[in-house]
Design brief:
With 329 residues, this protein is of the alpha/beta class. The protein has 10 helices and 11 strands. The radius of gyration is 20 Å and the shape is globular.
């Protein structure tokens, strides 16, 4: 299945395991910058069994376990999320040494207060939700399949979460490009009115990126890219209003894709390292079998985690940089 040397994953084992699970690769929205093909739907039953069996095989040695729900839109398969967390809970009872955390990246269209409270109960306590500016601009980029805007529905869902008690974190990721740049200050004020004074809500203001989608050529990304100085100005404006922000200026930590214990499990059982360039041959590092074994291409894996060996900060911060085409062999 995979060229060059293979491994069953044991050589990459440690006392930590981080899984990014695609419970579905279908989506209820059609964002113009999306880079996913949405060809795989709901996670297949053998793959779900494979994840559970992987956790069962590893539980005795684990000290840290994290599960991140991605997609697609994971809330299209809320039952899969709940089923998996029920299994994880049984492992945590049997193996109390495991520290566990879970998060979800969601468009929040299906994130009603009731759904949110259900997810908090099973341990999903951190969320990342994207906005493309205020209504006028968000509704140009983040739409339903029929083309209708989504801002009002999503904004209502997110703002009502402030009424929920308990500990959680919601990161509002605000995409900025040349089109919506001038509207972002007003949107920051809107966020202040909705979330100011509640540290459970944080802004993550960042430049919109081209990630390989079919409409990339239409995106008017900031000329300064991720380092555009105007982004820093917007962050300072948010700080001046007392808004909590998701900090990117923290002690250096490697990208998840550079970590040997981090894996993406696709809905069809394929294993990736990076959540972008999903169909790149070099990003197809293995397959998860129903018995919980990971069939990994050792050379492709080593290409992603090369920064661990070299200590190179650039390779650690984004192992995608310098990635060869079609794959590193």
């Amino acid at each position: 299945m995979f060229p060059s040397k293979k491994t069953d994953g044991t050589c990459f084992a440690s006392n930590r395991l981080a899984l990014i699970l695609f419970s579905t690769e279908a989506c209820n929205l059609r964002c113009v910058y999306c880079y996913e093909k949405r060809e795989n739907g709901r996670m297949k039953a053998p793959v779900l069994r494979g994840v559970k069996n992987l956790l069962k095989r590893r539980a005795g040695d684990l000290e840290d376990l994290s599960i991140s729900w991605f997609g697609g839109e994971p809330l299209l398969t809320k039952d899969v999320v709940e089923d998996m967390h029920g299994y994880v809970h049984s492992l945590l009872v049997a193996y109390p040494q495991i520290r566990f955390n879970a998060d979800m990246t969601t468009n929040a269209y299906l994130l009603s207060r009731e759904v949110f409270e259900d997810l908090l109960k099973i341990g999903v306590t951190k969320y990342q939700i994207s906005f493309d500016g205020p209504r006028e601009w968000h509704d140009r980029k983040c739409v339903l399949p029929g083309g209708h805007g989504t801002f009002d529905h999503i904004w209502k869902n997110v703002t009502v979460l402030r009424q929920v008690s308990g500990r959680f974190k919601v990161i509002l990721r605000i995409h900025v490009d040349e089109d919506n740049l001038e509207a972002i200050p007003d949107f920051i004020v809107q966020c202040k009115d909705a979330f100011g004074g509640d540290s459970r809500f944080q802004l993550f203001i960042r430049a919109l990126s081209r990630l390989g989608g079919s409409s990339d050529h239409q995106l008017r990304t900031l000329k300064g890219g991720l380092e555009d100085k105007r982004i820093e100005g917007l962050r300072k404006l948010a700080s001046s209003m007392g808004l909590d922000q998701y900090s990117t200026k923290k002690p250096f930590t490697p990208c998840y894709a550079a970590r040997p214990y981090s894996f993406i499990v696709r809905a069809d059982g394929r294993i990736n390292k990076c959540s972008t360039i999903l169909e790149h041959p070099g990003n197809q590092v293995g397959y998860l079998h129903a018995n919980g074994t990971m069939e990994l291409n050792k050379q492709r894996m080593l290409a992603w985690i090369r920064g661990i060996r070299t200590g190179d900060r650039e390779e650690l911060s984004c192992p995608l940089k310098g990635f060869q085409d079609p794959c590193v062999e």
